[in-house]
Amino acid sequence: MTYAIEIRDLKKRYESGFEALKGVDLTVEKGDFFALLGPNGAGKSTTIGILCSLVNKTSGQVSIFGKDIDQDFAKAKRHLGVVPQEFNFNVFETVFNVVVTQAGFYGISRAVAEGRAEKYLKQLDLWSKKDVQSRMLSGGMKRRLMIARALIHEPDVLILDEPTAGVDIELRRSMWEFIKKLNEQGTTIILTTHYLEEAEQLCRNIAIISAGEIVENTSVKALLKTLNQETFILDVDTPIPTDWTVTNYGVVVNQDGTSLEVEVTKGQSINVIFQALDAISANVVSMRNKSNRLEELFVKLIKG
Amino acid sequence: MKNSEIWIAFYTILVREIRRFTRIWPQTLLPPAITMSLYFAIFGNLIGERIGEMGGFSYMQYIVPGLIMMSVITNSYSNVSSSFFSAKFQHSVQELLVSPTPNWVILLGYTLGGVSRGLCVGLIVTVLSLFFTHMALESLLLTIVVVCLTSVMFSLGGFVNAIYARSFDDVSIVPTFILTPLTYLGGVFYSIDLLPDFWQTVSMLNPVLYMVNAFRFGILGVSDINVYWALVIVCVFIVVLFGFGLRLLNQGKGIRS
């Protein structure tokens, strides 16, 4: 089977002696929406850097759509589009030139490049800014410009390294709608993000990297199934006693009695809590997770 | 990449480089025009008239080829060193590194970008010199060959400088402390026949001397050195610098972690 990305025993030791990757094995299937998560310094950016030739690996094998990056680097690179974490375009070039110039580096003729640039800049709401120097764009626009640039050679795999960092909610949503559409059209998406709810909502598969090693690599659904305990916050319309308890459930009521935290372990039902509240004539008006479910697992896995 | 795609990638880099130095023409094209006009007026006209003839030509005629070559050398060098270092500094070099463009095409593109600016400035200075003196032309072919090869050589030198540079200071150190002294001591303003024997021998170790004299021979037909040696030396430097620059790119020196 040919994977979109196949990484075998990937190691990276920097000149300082720091071992960023300690033998990473990772596969991403074609068409997947994949999340690579990990705390700062875990090895995410090093892995992505090696994939897109910005970091030299110490050892190991990396293939993109079956093309080894050492033996067939030109073909491997054609399959890959990268949206890096930091802005890395020539800030003195116009928006249009940033995108069209990148196409030239892939051997795409000017005429074809201009057509594609128009298409992607329009899709990303940047067409009206095409003649503006890229340094004049807002942060969100700059990020969209990097997406347009990464798509200009129509890659099969798009890597997005923290694409929504510092982007407002509305723009983040529209960006994800765009990326979801790309994925539906067949583009494999690999995402790193610190917003774990994004990964939970968008991604099918997930890998968690910590201290240069993959500590989990599975589907988001399978990962969430391993969650033993969830904490819910319930708001009630009638204040309840602060020492109110329910047998076998961890319950903490806040000081004014209008909100409570309930720990529900695997096999238990939240209905028991509803019934207990009903018995004291308190109605639940809203309910939410205390933290993102994936976040709880993430913290647990990282802590080992 | 197919040949046609390689050509597009090369052409893209070259056009981008030309677009860069023409966009900032007050920093790239105007200063050498002003500086050289001052050289022509002060050294050529005012002081030159008191110096008299050199090599059978008026002093103004004698220094014009050297000043043209000096402009070509410094501008070829600084174009590539500043452009590639800026790309490193603002990380836009990553646009090239993630693409399938072969390293030799990147090197060639930047080098010919430097050559374009070097020749452009050389042409401007040549036209300006015509306002101050009459210029003969002994061999058009030799003049063009020498100026082009010299420009290629110093563009490659600028590229190697940019690869090693870690700050903007590093980019200016080589032109200030190495290139400028070599150029001034490379026979731009005088014939080495005027020097004592010892300093004549020392001057022969300066590669710029060969280029300036070969260029002067192409224009005036006079030279302190054997022109064919000059061509051989420039070609050897080009081969060595191209090989070295390519090796640095392949290793990812200064651009890949």
Automatic annotation (TrEMBL), chain A:
Annotated GO MF terms: ATP binding
Keyword Nucleotide-binding applies: yes
Gene3D superfamilies: P-loop containing nucleotide triphosphate hydrolases (3.40.50.300)
Top-level lineage group: Bacteria
Entry-linked Pfam families: ABC_tran
Residues spanning the signal sequence: none
Domain ABC transporter positions: 5-236
UniProt xrefs under SMART domains: AAA (SM00382)
Record has Transmembrane helix as a keyword: no
Keyword annotations: ATP-binding, Nucleotide-binding, Transport
Classification via PANTHER family: ABC TRANSPORTER ATP-BINDING PROTEIN (PTHR42711), ABC-TYPE MULTIDRUG TRANSPORT SYSTEM, ATPASE COMPONENT (PTHR42711:SF15)
Protein name: ABC transporter ATP-binding protein
TrEMBL record, chain B:
PROSITE patterns listed in its UniProt record: ABC_TM2
Protein's UniProt keywords contain Transport: yes
Keywords, alphabetical: Cell membrane, Membrane, Transmembrane, Transmembrane helix, Transport
Subcellular location(s) of the protein: Cell inner membrane; Membrane
Domain ABC transmembrane type-2: 23-252
Pfam families the record matches: ABC2_membrane (PF01061)
InterPro entries named among the record's database cross-references: ABC-2_transport_permease, ABC2_TM, ABC2_TM_bact-type, ABC_2_transport
Keyword Translocase appears in the UniProt entry: no
Entries under NCBIfam families matching the protein: PRK15066.1
Name of protein: Transport permease protein
Native source species: Marinomonas vulgaris
